[in-house]
Each structure stands twice: as structure tokens, then as C-alpha cells.
Amino acid sequence: MDLLTLIGLIAAVSTIVIAIATSSGLESFVNVPGILIVVLGTMAVTLIKHRMSSVVSAFRMAFGEAFRDKTENPLTLILQIRDLADIVRKKGILGLEDYDTEHPFMKKSINLAVDGHSPEFVEEALTHELQQTLERYENAERVFRGIGESSPALGMIGTLVGLVQMLNQMDDPASIGPAMAIALLTTFYGVFLAQVIFLPMADKLQLKMQDEQRNMTLILTSMGNILEGQNPRVMQEMLSAYLSPENRSRLEAET
Amino acid sequence: MDLLTLIGLIAAVSTIVIAIATSSGLESFVNVPGILIVVLGTMAVTLIKHRMSSVVSAFRMAFGEAFRDKTENPLTLILQIRDLADIVRKKGILGLEDYDTEHPFMKKSINLAVDGHSPEFVEEALTHELQQTLERYENAERVFRGIGESSPALGMIGTLVGLVQMLNQMDDPASIGPAMAIALLTTFYGVFLAQVIFLPMADKLQLKMQDEQRNMTLILTSMGNILEGQNPRVMQEMLSAYLSPENRSRLEAET
Amino acid sequence: MDLLTLIGLIAAVSTIVIAIATSSGLESFVNVPGILIVVLGTMAVTLIKHRMSSVVSAFRMAFGEAFRDKTENPLTLILQIRDLADIVRKKGILGLEDYDTEHPFMKKSINLAVDGHSPEFVEEALTHELQQTLERYENAERVFRGIGESSPALGMIGTLVGLVQMLNQMDDPASIGPAMAIALLTTFYGVFLAQVIFLPMADKLQLKMQDEQRNMTLILTSMGNILEGQNPRVMQEMLSAYLSPENRSRLEAET
Amino acid sequence: MDLLTLIGLIAAVSTIVIAIATSSGLESFVNVPGILIVVLGTMAVTLIKHRMSSVVSAFRMAFGEAFRDKTENPLTLILQIRDLADIVRKKGILGLEDYDTEHPFMKKSINLAVDGHSPEFVEEALTHELQQTLERYENAERVFRGIGESSPALGMIGTLVGLVQMLNQMDDPASIGPAMAIALLTTFYGVFLAQVIFLPMADKLQLKMQDEQRNMTLILTSMGNILEGQNPRVMQEMLSAYLSPENRSRLEAET
Amino acid sequence: MDLLTLIGLIAAVSTIVIAIATSSGLESFVNVPGILIVVLGTMAVTLIKHRMSSVVSAFRMAFGEAFRDKTENPLTLILQIRDLADIVRKKGILGLEDYDTEHPFMKKSINLAVDGHSPEFVEEALTHELQQTLERYENAERVFRGIGESSPALGMIGTLVGLVQMLNQMDDPASIGPAMAIALLTTFYGVFLAQVIFLPMADKLQLKMQDEQRNMTLILTSMGNILEGQNPRVMQEMLSAYLSPENRSRLEAET
User: Fold this and answer.
1) Neighbour subunits, A (≥3 Cβ pairs < 8 A)
2) Number of inter-chain CB pairs under 8 A, A vs E
3) E-interface mutation test, from D14, D71, D195, most E Cβ less than 10 A away
4) Higher per-residue confidence, A75 vs E69
5) pTM over 0.90
6) In chain E, pLDDT over 70 holds for what percent of residues?
7) Three-state SS letters, chain C
């Protein structure tokens, strides 16, 4: 998760909290039993749906990296790849040994190439690595989407419970309003958690997965080309197709 | 977005505004806090779901080009392609150098051909370009569809907030009606934004993407055929299959 | 659209009109502003979603051919194909020149064969033609399904508008009932248009598309076989698989 | 449809009828105009959606065979196939002529083999037959699913009609309850028809289709193997993979 | 189903039961006719949708193995496979005869290899076995998802029945509340069964299926490699891609 996701989350929660606070007190929107039904219930259902380890790794992926924006710009990658291709043409594959990069997947692919494995082996190993990464993202997305499907359901269950209780105790008409307000609160909690937090986060994770896939595919393909000794200029032309128009003109400016 | 989309947007908004204005005052449909919950909330959620740059480029794509209808008629393209094929047969590929066209993708493919790249290289570069364009459309469609899914959800959250507040203050029966009216307004805003503006725009973007894909595929395929020196007549027969019946007879009339 | 679709449409509309007319007056179900919101609103939204030409061609396809059932029975086609194969074996391909058929796609494929094009060319041209036809059906289906999705949404918007207006004017309790009745009418219009007219029509168009695809594929495949001079008996055996059991025994009876 | 489907249908309908009958009279749940709207309306809409012949054949497939469970156990088929393979190895393909089987698809494949057609021809003819059968099942499933989608929609239309009428005649408060009860009945009819009868039937038809597909594929594959003279033991080992664990041990016991 | 699923189930049910018990008596949430409509109705509908044997095997798969967590860690499997490869390189394939493993699929693949079948045959037999296992999981998932779709529908039917009865007997206003409470209970039962029990279980079964598929594919692929005499080190490198990063470093530590 990157910084903007965090800002979005804070903005979304603030918007609703401020809207509530300005037109009535916030305290009438806090109902502890209702919060427990929705939160504990969703947690329990999530435990049925997924493995504990999946849930932990999904939350770690989503929140643990909240302040880093790990997905690198394809432009940076392409410039690095051009450097790699230059080095290989000048010093041979072993020249890559001292090349320093921060992108873990590129580092891994350089190591594999330097170790003298065949291009086929390098490609197969990197493909497996790529699939592993995608699977971790898919798992995180699935966990978040699962929570986003369960929490409104548990909100609805809480509201049904509240309505049945209210309808059984209609002796005092004055209490109907507040009782129904409390019943509606669990639906509010469930929809809020799903639509403002978990479903949007699942969408963002899906997006990040596509970015990673594109970046890793870009590296995977170019490593193969480099090992086969392709011309760096041809490669750059080819790779520039991965860029948005602005980045492409920046790339051309740099050449 | 083309002119008709703009007319449709104006017509749709007017229909509803006029319907409201004729049967009651418009002012009872303006509720600033409700508008803020739906609009700011949806914006914040959109920031969680997408990258800022995606959102900006989606809106630029959708609104920035509102008065131009960029998607060219396949008939125009086919006539141009026939000209290109004629030129290549008469003067060779270099004869294309002076050919002038407004379609950026055709211009790019002519440049690549004139530069003396191999047909395989031209095809691969154009295919990458095609995928880039489709990705930009897909991104814009996804952003708009995402907004169209979030805004009714935030409308519903606003209505739940309003209902809970109303139910907690039912002392004065006379205020129940107006309070509930205000609660319902956020649902109205959310559904209106989604169903009248953002979801239809997402559909139109999907359509435009298909048009672009067809046009670009048409150019891509014929450039390959031209570089291999295929007969212009056979090509025209082939390409005419991309046309609707009316356009096809117009093409035959022109020959 | 065939005759039965028209009968179905009339029957569906009558059922509901009669049900209304027998239990109350029809006039209480006619609310001009409500009809305008749903009909004009849906039209405007449809203009945003699709190109004008797509909408026109979708309606022409659906209603213009209302009294003709163009989709031919595969049995008729197979008998014609057997005749064609016989003619080709006896008189050569040029013998087809005088063959008369009403099915436009078969006529086109005969013309192509008689013109002396290579089997590959004939197949490619017919495949393009087939795709064009399918695309026209898909377009019509998409337009109708799009209307069927928008009209209930506009009905709901109309109802929300009506409810807000009613809740703001609850001074006279006697007027609440009729006001809410009017508010509900737009939902009724929207659901009626979608579920009784447009969505079923979209389903029928999808079905017709599959029929056309099967018939055109049948012709396409057999033209190829005929041009390669395959045995008519073997072909008939093969083609009989396209038939339902009843039609198959009828085909065997005719042989 | 097999016997258990019929038992399920009877049990489902009885459960609800008994639940109604024990807590109130059944007569308050019979509303002839409501039944007509839902049943006639759904029939009319079904006529728009499908061809008459499709609807007839779907109902014949679903109800006409209600008391027969035609789908044979794969174990029976595998034992028969082993016999066939044995016969072919001992007496040649013509030895199959006297083999008697009840499964129509196996009978057809034996006939084709005995007639001396090439293995390719047999396979192609059987594949077409298989596709035809699957298409008939798909058609029936689609018809039933279509009814299951339309009947709640017509129930909702009926309820909207009833509510509008009720809201227009609210002079007598005592009549509101019964009027609204009648309005709700059409929703009840629609949901009941869809969720208790047509959608579950569509699911069962889908299941049967998969069974038929597996059985027919099993026969198709083994006929090919038999015609190529493969070893019966190897074939049995191969085919046993189609069986559930219990059936597999039974098969091994029989050998 | 593993232990955590059971804990999740108990936690989810307890959360809701405790929430009810603390705010009102549990007895007002027990309505025997309502429970019968939802439970018996769903059972009957499930009988229409599926075969009895499928339902039995789905429940046996889900509940019968509740206290065992059968899915093995891929790390354990890879270590075993390395041992197998070592043995084969030292003693030949027959050396596997004494190898003992608990994983039934690995045992089966060893047996097939030791029996002297060709690598192709082993692979084909194991592939069939793999498909059978996946089909059993798919069946169980489909049964549970089917129940999760039917139970809310039957809850809604029960609520409609209750509402119609209540609306017909509105003479005593004091009884409206409790009557409506009872009507709502069936919706509560249906949603509870679907969202807290059956749909989450279906999700877990889907997950288990993917785990089994990965493990069985891992065994299947490596058995092929072993039979072809591939280098154990190369295989381990290859297989390590199936592991999460932590497991991978553990694997490297063990080497």
C-alpha cells in the first residue's frame, strides 16, 4: 500500500466522521454490542473462509508496507535494463556481478544469469518467482474481498436481531425510534467497513498486482533478450512500448 | 468522448432537473452536507482504489476530449490503406515518406515501415502500441466503473447516518418527514452520479476501446500485408469485411 | 424478431394491462411526468452509453423485421447443401451459377465459389462476413441490455425524487397515499420496460445470434468441403449432426 | 429428471404448503389475479426470450422423463466397454454386431464401428452427437433459468401494481392490511416459482449435462481405443480414473 | 476442513448467540415453524439441485474430516521428493519400493513407478486421479454454495408468508409487532445459515481444492522428472518456487 492509499483511507473515514459530528453527536453512533457483532463476527467468518496464515500475510502485505511505495516506475527499470545490456555487450555476462539494483526481482535475475545457468533455466526460475508473487497478491486481494463481502452480511444479521428484539418490545412507542436506530447501526458498520475500507483496498491490491506483473514480465523478457545478446537499441525501442507517452518522451530525451 | 455523449449527459441531467423543478422547488433537493458525504467520500474511496495518476488520466481522457470525435470511420482508414498499397507497389516502401495522415497510429506505422525495419519488428512494435492504448482505455473505464460502484454505496451510508439521527430525535413528529427526505437525498445523489453519469460513461469508454482496437488491428494487419507486397485489390476485398453493409457499398462505389 | 416474439410481447403487455384494468382504472397508472423521467432519461443515458448509429441499427434489427422469421431451419440448409454438392460433382463448380437460394449468406458463398476464388479465400471472406453479422447482433443485444439496465435505475431515481417531495409536504395526511403511489409508478415503469420488454428482447437477440452462427458455420464448412470435392453422402451424414433427432429422421426419410 | 428430483420438488412444495396451512388458512394465499399476472406474464416473457420449440423441448426433457433415471453409472459403462474390448480382440470388430446395450450412445457408436467406418469418422460423428445432446441440455437449462429470472420480476411488477392501487384507496384504514397482503402475494408467487422450482431444476439439468458429457466422453474415448486395438487391461486401468473410490474398488473386485 | 475452520464456525455462532442472549432472551429467537420452513425447505431444494450421493459426499468431506488438517505443507513434500530423487539415482526406480509416505497421492505415484509402467502412463494415470480429487472438491463446494444460495431465498419465502398472514389479521394492533418479529426470523435464519456457515465453508473448500491441486501437481511433475532421471539439485531449485519466502529459506537451510 502506498502513501496515497493511506491518505485516501484517512480522508474517507474523516469525511463520514465529520459529517456525523457536525449534525449530531458522534456518541449516538457508537454501539459496542453492534460493533462486536460486526467485527468479531466478520473475523470469525474470515477464519472459516481462509487459512490463518493467509489472513496474517494479507494484512501484513496491506498495512505493513503502508508508507512505502514499492512498485517501481517502468521507466527506471528500462533505464537499468539498458545499462545491463550495455555491460553484457562490453564485458560479457560476468560483468553484471557488480551491478547494484534495489529491485529484488532484478537482483535475483542478475544473480541467476551470473551463476551461469542456461537462459531456459533462468526464465523458468523467474517465471516461478513471478507466479509466487502474483499468488501472494491474489491471496491478499481475496482475503480483503472476502471481508468486504462478509461484513455487510453480518451488519444485516445484527440489524435483523435488533429489529426482532424491538418488535417484541413495542409497549413503549417512545423507545421504538432509538431501538431501531441501534438496529440500523450494525448495517451502517458493515457497509462502512466493506465499502470504505476493505473493498477499495482489495481493488488497490489488484492494481498493484498488475503493476508488479508488468514490471516483472518486463524484467523477465529483457533478461532473456540480454542473455541472447540482443542489440540494446532494438531492446529499448521494444521496451518503450511499456511506457506511457510522457515517460516515453522522457526516455527518448535521455538517450 | 464525442459530442453525442456530451448531448446525452446534458439531456439526462436536464430531464431530471426539469422533472424536479416543475413539481417542487429545486432548493429542497440541495443538501450541502449530503453532497459532501457522497462527493468527498467517493473521491476519497477512489483514491484508495486507484493511483492518483490513473484517476487524472481517466478524467482527462473522458472530459478533455469532449468535443472531438477522434475515432475514425473504418471506411476512411481502408481508403487510406488502399492508397498506401498503391504507393508501395508503384514507388516502393520509401514512397510512403511523403504520405500525410492524421491518424496517429497510421502515421507511426508508416514511419516504422519507412525506417526500414523488418515486417516482424514493425508488427511487434505496433502490437505493443496497440496494447498501451487499450490499457489506457481500460484504466479509464475501470476508474469510472469504480466511481459508479462507490457513489451509491456512499449514498447509502449517508442515508443510514441520516436515518439513525432521525430515529434518535423523534420527539417532534412534524420533523420526521423532512428529516427522512434529507436522509434519502444522499441515496438520490449516489444513484444519480452512478447511473446517469459514471456507469454510462464507463460503457462508452469500453465501446471506444473496441472501436480503437478494431481500427488499430485493421491498420496493423494491412501494414503487414503491404510490407509483404500483397495485391491492393485482394486487400480491399479482405478489409471490406470490417465495414457495415452501407459502408461496404459506398466503398465499392468509390472503386 | 419473429412472429412469436411479437405475440409474446403483446401477451405480456396485455396480461399486465388487463390485470390493472380489472381491479382499478388504468388512468391511475398513467403519470406523464413519471413516464417522461423514465423514458427520456433512459433515452439520454442510452445516448451516453452507445453511438447513435448503434442504437438506430439495434432498433431496426429488432423491430423492422418483426414479421419475418429469417432464421432458416438447418434442415432446409442441409438439403440445399446436398443439392449443391450433387451439382458440383455432376457439372463442376460453374454449375452452381444458376442455383437459386434465398439465404443471403449461401448466395454470397455460391457467388464467391463461382467467381473462381481459391477455397482459402472463400473461407476467409465468409468468415469475415460471419463475424460482421455476429457483431451486428451483439451490438443490438448490448443496446437492449443496456436499456434494460438503465430503465429500472431511472425508475428508482424518479421514485426517490417523488419520495423526497412527498416527505417534504406531509402536512396533509390524506395526500400521502396518492403521492407515494405516484412515486412508486416510476419504479413500475422502469421495471416493466426492463423485465417485460428490453431484457427478454436482448435474450432473444442472443439466441438468434447463436442460430445465425450455427447456420452460417454450417454453410461455411460445407462450402469448403464441396470445393474440395467431398462425397455428398459423407457430408450429409456429417451435417445431420447439426439437426435435432426429429429433423434427422426427416432428413433420412427424404434421402 | 430422476425420481429424487421429483421427491425434492414434492417435499419443497409440501413444506411451504403445510407451514401456511398450519398457521392460517391456505385460502388467504390464493389470489387468482395475482397468480395470473405471475404465471401468464412469465409465460409471455418466456415466449419473447426463447423459441416455442425450445420451451416445449425443455419441459419435455424435464418432466417427460420424470420417473426414469437415465444417466447410467460409469461403472456399468466401463464393464460394458471391457466386454466390447474383449470381443474385439477375440472376434474382430464385426463381433460387436450382436452386442446388446441399452445406452443409446453406446449403441450408436457400436453401429458406426460395425459399419466399417474409419476411426476418425466414428470419432467425428460421435463428437457431433455429443455436442447435440449437450446443446439440448443447455437449451433446457437456459429456458428454466430464464423462467427463474422472470418470475420474481413479474411478482415484483404485480406487487407494485397492488401497492399503487392500495395507496390510491387509503380511505378505509381497515382495508390497508388485506390490500397489502394481496400485493405481497405476487412477490411470494414469483419467488416461490423461481427459488423452489425453476432455478433448482436448472441446476439439476446442468448437473445431468455434466454426467452425460462424462459418460459420452468415456464411451467416445474408449471406442477410439478399441478400434485401435488397445489392451483391455490397460484401458480398464485408464478408465477406472472416471470412477469414485468406492466404485473403483468394486471394479477391481469384479476383475 | 481443518481445526481453524471449526474454531471459526464456533466463534461465529457464539458471537451472534451471545449478542442475542445479552440483550434479550434467546427463546424469542427460536421459532420452530420458521426453522422448519428454512431447514426442511432448503434440504428439499438441495435434493432437487443435486444428487443425494453428492450431498452426502459433500457433507462427509466437510464435516467428517473436521479434526484433521490433511493438506500437507509443500515444504514436507519437496523434502520427500528430494529423498525420492536421491534413492532413484542410487538404487534405481525399484529402490522406491520400501519408501514410506503418508500422502496418499505420493504413495500411489510411487506404486505406479515401481510397477514399471512407462512415464507417460504414470503421468496420465496420476492426472486422472488429480482430476477426480478436484471434482470431488468442486462437487462439495457446489453443494455448499447451492445451500448458501437457497437458504436466504427460503428465509425470504418464510418472511413473505408471515407478512401476508400478519397483514390479514391486523385487528389487534398489539399483535403486529410480535407477528412481524416472527416473520423476520425466517430471513434471519436463512441469512445466518448462508453467510455464517455455508458460504464461508464453500470458500474454504475452494481454497483446499487449490492447495490439493498445487500439491498434487507438484508431485505429478516431480515424479515425471524423477523417472526421467533429472538431477536432484536442479529439481529442488525448480520446486523451491512453489514455496513461500520463509519456507524457501528453511529449505535452503536444510540442504
Assistant:
1) B, E
2) 123
3) D195
4) A75
5) no
6) 94
7) CCHHHHHHHHHHHHHHHHHHHHHCCHHHHCCHHHHHHHHHHHHHHHHHHCCHHHHHHHHHHHHHCCCCCCCCCHHHHHHHHHHHHHHHHHHCHHHHHHCCCCCHHHHHHHHHHHCCCCHHHHHHHHHHHHHHHHHHHHHHHHHHHHHHHHHHHHHHHHHHHHHHHHHHCCCCHHHHHHHHHHHHHHHHHHHHHHHHHHHHHHHHHHHHHHHHHHHHHHHHHHHHHHHCCCCHHHHHHHHHHHCCHHHHHHHHHHC
